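Treating backbone geometry as a discrete language has practical consequences that deserve illustration. Part of our work consisted of pairing the sequence of a single chain with a tokenised description of its backbone. What the numbers capture is local backbone geometry rather than side-chain detail. For completeness, the protein is quoted in full, as a sequence line and a line of structure tokens:
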Amino acid sequence: MLAPKPLNSLHLYLTHLDHNFGVIRNQLKTTTQIIGVVKANAYGSLAIPFTKRLVELGVDKLAVAYTEEGIFLREKGIKTPIMVFYPQQHTIPDLIAANLEPCMYSKALLENIELLLNKKEIKNYPVHIKYNTGLNRVGFPVDEVDFVLQKTKQPCFRLESVYSHLAATEEDRPSKICDLQIERFNQIKLQHMAASEKPPQFHLLNSSGVFNYPECQMDAVRCGIAFHGYANNVAWDALLKPVAELESIISQIHQVEKGEAVGYDNGWIAPQKVQIATLPLGHADGIGRHFGHHKVQVTINGQQAPIVGNICMDMLMVDVSGIRCQAGDRVRFFDQTQTAAAFAEKGNTISYELLTSLGPRIKRQLHD
């Protein structure tokens, strides 16, 4: 049986990934490595083709959030080194079996990994150390450097890198919090370099940081959202190309009289006679209720149609009064013109949340 044409599609343009990788590469010194962050299904796209393309482009290392994500990449044949940002203690045996590289952020986690490596008589296993310099999410406190230095000299470990994460790299400079974090991390770096015959790599910057803090690129940078075309700043975004475009169709068009309500809880009252189109996309698909009530417009046959009322689980309604359209016509949510960042901002959120929220009912379609 032939598969029906998808109602909703996320078009993924890998040539735009190529472009974005080149932009990032050109921002960096030739000696600075690129760590490609492909967590959360490569930011809601398709982890395997996206990751394979990064490998082809020459990414130096990959990174995911959790062990399961790294195992999935290994099972699909990805052999590039993979960092795991937030390994949980119960996943360490599987992490080691898959030859993934844990980012250690607490005494308990480090000691658990050390115990298991020694039990298996494994030497020189690649690990990374995360310090909390001010984001206050995860990481060793800055006063535990001596403990880290003593522990990572054990034969079971090979310390690959030391890093931290800046809290607000997209903010205009100077940033009080980022400046403080950079100062703290530079002190940590000096301590590690003084104690090591062969110092590890050091990295601090994310996608926005590549553009805003070029003097802090150090040995490597961690890029994720920039590969998808976004860097949290209009000027930086203009250098990049959005990879993803979200498209749906019109299911039905009907006339609503003045004073009639549209959607749950009388979410919108028609101020005059209007034409309403229903689209087969809702908050179960990642278009949350915060995008309703005229906050966002979609594009139908080149014209803008606002989302009206409350967004439903499986559907939403738009006002197509004055737009020549019919059931089956295609509808654009975000693309190269109205980008995911612009769409997200109208709903008081960010491109990260929008892209990673897009559900499995939306068909991912690759274009090369």
The chain has twelve helices and 19 strands. The CA atoms of residues 219 and 321 lie 55 Å apart. The domain at 13-237 is CATH 3.20.20.10 (TIM Barrel). The radius of gyration is 24 Å.
